[in-house]
């Protein structure tokens, strides 16, 4: 592969996640973009193409009114929890196609308080599905987690350990929303939402923005001292019969999730194994989801998660650091920005300049994973 076919992250920017009623979603996005541009040492007029994503907060391409009317091609993306990764894919593919040497990906959202609520018709479902209560994602994730714990002999304590580590990491990260550490007991004793998941085992819809500047390989090392290579980025949708968000299947036996397919494709393309990963970001809409995704992405075997958590293997100083910034549990989930938050954290970790806890030993291989409705997953491998 020639340098012109390779794509690198050369700049990244991000606002603190949480709730800030003093600014609009567009203002957050502008801040993230300008920070990413400054980080790369370039100006908006240097950007040859852009892609932006938002779930509920407007058309991203209207940002040109704030950033500059340069005529830049700007693609709008809406792809659920995979929106951020979709913007990166759109920009990376355009760079490889030779459309420009530099591109920008941005995602943002400003959600209202309360659980996500959407119409079943938006996902091709009838009203009957909403009447079962399954359009409320807390119900779905709880059912999926309950079944998984039973099938693999994992205790509810593991759910609390995931959240405890998330809040501990978030307490040390300046961009996280939840900055107060919680104990395992506090998490288990918090209000029950959907058994076996309690209040502090769920993330919250939030607000925030994140952006990346990407460059072709023939430009990347002129702009950045330590550019991070996008070694692979793979998307997959659900297969027949798989049990996914807003997908009314319940197979009696094992099934293959889109996360399994996306992770395998990402590792195969990058030429690395799950065991090579030194820092990872996993979709943790809830504690149970992280447990499941640890195994589905190949980072551990099914049923091994509790032992890893008890032994500290997923801590920033452990064998496989996971969600070093606190993930969605500590950061909340502004849908359009959440996937780009993952890239921001892994890029900074690989460059040795993490805003929060830094993984020791100069990590060289990072991994990101997102999963969402109606059964879509995107995984990437990043290397230095």
From TrEMBL:
CDD domains from the UniProt entry: SCP-x_thiolase
GO molecular-function terms, A-Z:
acyltransferase activity, transferring groups other than amino-acyl groups
- Name all Thiolase C-terminal domain ranges: 259-381
- A Pfam short name: Thiolase_N
Thiolase N-terminal domain spans which residues?
7-171
Identify the domain of life. Answer: Bacteria
Give UniProt keywords alphabetically: Transferase
Protein name in the entry: Acetyl-CoA acetyltransferase
Q: Which organism is it from?
A: Streptomyces griseorubiginosus
Upper classification of the organism = Bacteria, Bacillati, Actinomycetota, Actinomycetes, Kitasatosporales
């Amino acid at each position: 592969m020639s340098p012109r076919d390779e794509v690198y992250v050369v700049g990244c920017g991000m606002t603190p996640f949480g709730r800030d009623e003093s600014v609009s979603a567009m203002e957050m996005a502008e801040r993230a973009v300008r920070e990413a541009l400054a980080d790369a040492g370039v100006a908006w007029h240097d950007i040859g193409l852009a892609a932006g994503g938002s779930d509920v907060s407007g058309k991203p391409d209207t940002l040109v009114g704030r950033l500059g009317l340069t005529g830049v091609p700007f693609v709008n993306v809406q792809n659920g929890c995979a929106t951020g990764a979709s913007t990166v894919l759109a920009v990376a593919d355009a760079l490889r196609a030779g459309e420009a040497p530099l591109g920008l990906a941005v995602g943002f959202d400003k959600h209202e308080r309360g659980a996500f609520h959407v119409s079943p018709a938006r996902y091709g479902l009838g009203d009957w599905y909403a009447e079962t209560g399954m359009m409320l994602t807390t119900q779905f994730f709880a059912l999926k987690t309950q079944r998984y714990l039973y099938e693999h002999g994992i205790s509810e304590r593991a759910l609390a350990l995931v959240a405890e580590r998330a809040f501990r990491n978030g307490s040390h990260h300046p961009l996280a929303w939840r900055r107060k550490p919680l104990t395992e007991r506090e998490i288990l004793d918090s209000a029950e939402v959907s058994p076996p998941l309690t209040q502090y085992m769920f993330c919250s819809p939030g607000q925030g923005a994140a952006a990346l500047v990407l460059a072709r390989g023939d430009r990347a090392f002129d702009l950045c001292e330590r550019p991070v290579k996008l070694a692979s980025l793979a998307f997959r949708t659900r297969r027949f019969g798989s049990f996914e968000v807003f997908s009314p299947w319940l197979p009696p036996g094992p099934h293959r999730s889109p996360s399994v397919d996306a992770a395998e494709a990402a590792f195969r393309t990058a030429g690395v194994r799950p065991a090579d990963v030194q820092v990872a970001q996993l979709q943790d809409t809830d504690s149970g989801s992280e447990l499941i995704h640890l195994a589905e992405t190949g980072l551990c075997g099914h049923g091994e998660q509790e032992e890893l958590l008890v032994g500290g293997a997923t801590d920033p100083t452990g064998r496989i650091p996971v969600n070093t910034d606190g993930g969605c549990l500590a950061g909340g989930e502004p849908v359009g920005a959440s996937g780009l938050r993952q890239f921001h954290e892994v890029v900074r970790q690989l460059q040795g300049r993490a805003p929060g806890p830094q993984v020791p030993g100069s990590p060289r291989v990072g991994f990101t994973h997102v999963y969402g409705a109606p059964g879509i997953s995107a995984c990437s491998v990043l290397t230095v």
